[in-house]
Design brief:
The protein is of the alpha/beta class and about 270 residues long. The protein folds into two domains: about 45 residues, no CATH class; about 200 residues, 3-Layer(aba) Sandwich (Rossmann fold), CATH 3.40.50. The protein is built from eight helices and ten strands. It has a six-stranded mixed β-sheet with strand order 5-4-3-6-7-10, sandwiched between helices. Helix 2 packs across helix 7.
Length: about 270
Amino acid sequence: MAVPAEAGGRGDGRWLGSRGGRSQDFRDFRDYHPGDDLRWVDWAAYARSDRLAVRVFQEEICPHVDIVLDTSRSMDLDGSPKAPAAAGLAALLAVAAANAGLTVTVWSDRDGLQRLPGQAARPETWLTPAFTGRTGLDEALRLQAPTLRRQGLRFLVSDLLWPGPPDAVLQTLAAEAAALHVLQVLASADLAPDAEGFLQVVDAETGQAVEIFLDDDGRRQVAGTLAAHRAAWADACRRRHAHLHAISADDLGRDWRPVELLRRGVLEGV
């Protein structure tokens, strides 16, 4: 898993950060400032020059990964691999983080966002996610926002198919993050419904049913609406310096190689 230089964490770690710290790797000298630890003063240099200078060492960090898995009902699309693909992708990210020596927490929508039961770095111990949430992720964050690690690496795994604007969700998830990756997981049935004629469509979260007529014009309208929705997310992600990735549930379920994340260097050697 690629780790930004800005990623930080609590305690000493195996990664070198971009700031000064207290590892054994000497970086530079700087002038002494009142309050500096006297242990790092270079007394030999002071004896030669009467100038107080302190040694600066490379910061050691233990980066943390937070994975937010959207478990709303729209993720469990009948007859599609979307739910297992989303859960599998979250598991893949957790294992990749652990293999890279990072700490990890997985969050899911259960009356707000809460830690997914089980050991985050060992998906085999997870309580299997139940994609039964009746609210969008924006509402789940309002009910209970997760305690995300400052300067951590964050992933959102979701279809993003709730009607509210993306800004509220991105504001929470991007705040004080080293990097935020938004992984939009969609199935082919989301992109191109193959039914035809009069259909009863049920809102997965609210249960509200409406009748629509689906023909070629209807499919074009669905495609246009989805494209506009994705464009809104792409624009919001740019403003929040987040990275938006399109993940095909059907393709991922075939060989479990997240091609988009490998291509863009988010994951390595999967």
